[in-house]
Write a structure and sequence with these properties.
Elements: E1 7-12, H1 17-32, E2 39-45, H2 51-65, H3 73-82, E3 83-87, H4 93-102, E4 109-114, H5 121-130, E5 139-142, H6 150-163, E6 169-171, H7 179-189, H8 192-195, E7 203-211, H9 220-245, H10 254-267, H11 274-279, E8 280-290, E9 293-295, E10 313-318, E11 330-335, E12 342-349, E13 368-374, E14 378-386, E15 394-400, H12 404-407, H13 414-424, H14 433-453, E16 458-462, H15 468-475
Parallel strand pairs: 1-2, 1-4, 2-3, 4-5, 5-6, 7-11, 8-16
Antiparallel strand pairs: 7-12, 8-9, 8-10, 10-11, 12-13, 13-14, 14-15
Helix pairs in contact: 1-2, 1-13, 5-6, 6-14, 9-10, 9-14, 10-14
The structure holds 6-O-phosphono-beta-D-glucopyranose (BG6).
Length: 485
């Protein structure tokens, strides 16, 4: 698929954190690689800004977030010529009329990108519609979290559906655009070797970790409202679980892939009532040391309420009620201010039933397949081999599944891939309406329970792996988090 020219990308939240840190750099890289055809990008913002100040802001965002080896001055200037600032108050009808007068009058490849809170999706859709800006080739990208719970997500889905057909709606989860996630699909569905082992007969359990070293940064206003459950778990972690656990889709096509992901979400064993405290751990960071520097506790971060009950960490034991996964726990965790920045899916195979070698730690020698999404993306298979020399000593060895010739190719950023897919009309890596709702349906009882309890999440020292209860969650099952790989 390629992008139809000319395109128009209208980016709401055009000077926000996401736009400056991820979207503009990704668009620059697409342009640099010759993948953006003729077209224009409009950064929509409330602020009134002259062209020079605006261009300097975008230039700075690209320079600070794109690897210096990819920065080429003439290419950057060419990109900046494609970018325009458009001032608009989303509640003012006249603003949309002015936007209509600026955009082309033809039915062009037009993508509206909502890099804003989801409370703005409804007024923006209405405004666009009233100004006649939605045409047959228009598409809309919705950033997560969409809604605050099942009910609000449903309302947003319904309102957006009044103006766009489901095929025109792209619900983005940028973790699905990460290189290793695509590779996970290829390794699973292009090799009979792994797929035949991919079930409860051979797999002991699966761990999915997204750990960040960063704290809440400048986003307290947003984060206080969402917490780790809505920011990371309901979307990124559950999506990674779906890709890991889904049945082979019949085709690599949007609905075929999404049908399988929805089945996984529907098969998640509900966690309700008493089970919530047993299976889900909430944490909030205290002061500590991150990246060698002392850092304040969450409650002392600028913009955070002094008695905030917002969680910055979650760990959960999730089970899937189907034939493939019965009895195989998925341990999921995510948190801010953890020991390191990493994202990994660890598939832990069962230990051998009987050893004829002098294996001292039968369980630590069990095979493991590790998908590392970041940093240093790649896939490793942990096997056992004979230690060279006399005797029959066995030792673990890591087989890297990333040949060195592949490592020289630049790994595209997740947003590069997803922006390209949305502009070219490929929705395979985007969520469908029912998928979004199923994820909320599973999460809803947990967030409702927490909001009724009004308890402070368990504190943990910044720079560690989270609260002790998260270690206990696995220890109770005789397992450990995989933290040394
Ligand atoms: C975003 C969350 O979706 O993902 C942020 O809102 C988080 O809180 C970010 O920091 C992490 O993304 P990445 O790609 O840097 O791991």
């Amino acid at each position: 698929m390629h992008i139809n020219a000319p395109f128009e990308l209208i980016l709401f939240g055009g000077l926000g954190d996401l736009a400056l840190r991820k979207l503009m750099p990704a668009l620059y890289l697409l342009n640099r690689d010759g993948r953006l055809p003729e077209g224009a990008i409009y950064a929509v913002t409330r602020r009134d800004m002259d062209r020079d100040t605006f261009v300097n802001k975008i230039r700075k965002s690209v320079e600070s977030h794109v690897d210096s080896s990819c920065l080429e001055r003439p290419v950057l200037e060419d990109f900046l010529n494609k970018v325009h600032c458009f001032t608009l108050d989303v509640n003012d009808a006249a603003g949309y009329q002015a936007l209509a007068a600026t955009l082309s009058s033809n039915d062009v490849n037009r993508l509206f990108y909502m890099a804003t809170g989801s409370d703005l999706y409804t007024p923006v859709c209405r405004g666009l519609n009233d100004a006649g800006l939605i045409c047959s080739q228009s598409k809309i990208v919705l950033e997560k979290p969409i809604g605050h719970d099942l009910e609000t997500a449903q309302k947003i889905n319904d309102t957006v559906a009044e103006f766009f057909t489901e095929k025109q709606i792209y619900r983005i989860d940028h973790y699905l655009g990460k290189e290793t996630v695509q590779n996970l699909m290829v390794l699973r569905f292009a090799n009979s070797l792994f797929e035949s082992q991919w079930n409860q007969h051979y797999i002991d359990h699966i761990q999915i970790t997204i750990s960040e070293q960063l704290g809440v940064e400048q986003r307290a206003e947003f984060y206080e409202h969402v917490g780790a459950m809505r920011d990371m778990f309901q979307n990124h972690l559950l999506q990674l679980l779906c890709i890991t656990a889904m049945e082979p889709p019949v085709k690599l096509e949007p609905d075929a892939v999404r049908d399988e992901k929805v089945k996984v979400l529907k098969a998640l064993k509900p966690i309700t009532g008493e089970l919530i405290n047993e299976k889900v751990v909430r944490g909030q960071y205290d002061s500590g040391v991150a990246d060698g520097k002392p850092v304040p506790r969450y409650r002392d971060e600028p913009g955070v309420h002094a008695k905030s009950l917002t969680e910055t960490f979650i760990a959960a034991k999730v089970e899937i009620d189907n034939w493939r996964w019965a009895g195989v726990p998925f341990y999921l965790r995510t948190g801010k201010r953890l020991a390191e920045r990493a994202c990994e899916i660890v598939v832990q195979f069962k230990e051998i039933p009987h050893s004829i070698f002098p294996l001292q730690h039968k369980n630590t020698m069990a095979n493991k397949l590790i998908f590392r999404l970041q940093p240093d993306e790649g896939v490793r298979l942990m096997l056992c081999e004979k230690r060279v020399g006399p005797g029959m000593n066995v030792r673990p060895m890591n087989l890297s599944l990333n040949p060195s010739n592949q490592r020289q190719t630049r790994v595209p950023e997740a947003y590069e891939r997803l922006l390209y897919d949305a502009l070219s009309g490929n929705a395979t890596l985007f969520l469908r309406d029912d998928e979004l709702l199923e994820a909320w349906r599973w999460v809803d009882p947990i967030i409702k329970h927490w909001s009724e309890q009004e308890q402070r999440p368990e504190p943990y020292t910044a720079g560690t792996w989270g609260p002790a209860a998260a270690t206990l969650l696995l220890a109770r099952d005789g397992r450990l988090w995989d933290e040394n790989s």
